[in-house]
Write a structure and sequence with these properties.
By secondary structure, the protein is mainly α. The chain has 15 helices and no strands. Helices cover 74% and strands 0% of the residues. The termini are far apart.
Length: 240
């Protein structure tokens, strides 16, 4: 039992560091010093009182990823509501079952929720994963005038989808909208790569230099979180 607990704890810590883009040196600490490494990681990178319950739930999900799905399916069978569909869709998305997530999200797009920002945003993320970029663009157009859309991850995915279907000019406009200082580091790195690929080298270089300069003033937490992004930025700067 102790062995399985340690394995589950290691799996959660590694899942958490990948999901939150923590520095990869933590992997070695977690693997080679299982109990101590996990404890240090949880205390310094994860734990606070508000998240304690969530951490427990995520460990259970890692041990039995289908349990949450089955529980939510039963709940939906018992009472079919908007929120129960969305909760089940979210659970499918979390385990990478994007087709079933899409099915549940689209099930609630009736006349009362046809412009629901959360549901359509979730559909955009799901269709981005399945690389159905024309559908991403179609859904994005439904919410692009909503205030939550501006400078969001969803606008970024919209820009990427536009590029994939060959609408480069529109893609550039959407991607540039997320170029906000002291945030969106990974997205801005992608924007710089996009601009470089379109032979807009100076614009790309300016963005990379801004990210590098901002990294010098990051908190320790953010430096760990975005370490891979910053390392790639530095590498690209030296190619100019």
């Amino acid at each position: 039992m102790y062995f399985y607990f340690i394995v589950a704890l290691q799996a959660f810590c590694i899942y958490h560091l990948v999901k939150n883009r923590r520095a990869y040196y933590w992997v070695f600490l977690i693997i080679f010093l299982p109990l101590i490494g996990c404890a240090i990681y949880l205390i310094t990178q994860v734990y606070n009182k508000k998240d304690a319950e969530k951490v427990s739930e995520e460990i259970v999900t890692i041990l039995n990823p289908t349990k949450k799905i089955k529980d939510l399916e039963k709940k939906l069978e018992f009472v079919e509501t908007f929120q129960n569909h969305v909760n089940l869709a979210d659970a499918y998305y979390e385990i990478g079952d994007y087709k079933n997530a899409i099915k549940q999200y689209e099930a609630v797009l009736d006349k009362d929720h046809q412009h629901d920002f959360y549901v359509i945003s979730s559909l955009i993320k799901s269709y981005s994963k399945t690389e159905d970029f024309n559908v991403v663009v179609r859904y994005a157009k439904q919410i692009e005038n909503q205030p939550e859309f501006k400078k969001s991850k969803i606008q970024f995915l919209y820009g990427l989808a536009l590029e994939k279907i060959g609408q480069d000019q529109e893609a550039e406009a959407q991607l540039k909208a997320i170029d906000v200082r002291y945030s969106n580091y990974q997205e801005r790195l992608v924007l710089a790569k996009f601009l470089k690929a379109k032979n807009k080298t100076e614009q790309a270089k300016d963005i990379l230099n801004e990210i590098f300069a901002e990294s010098k003033n990051m908190t320790k937490t953010n430096k760990n979180k975005y370490s891979a992004t910053i390392a790639e930025v530095e590498k690209l700067i030296h190619t100019y």
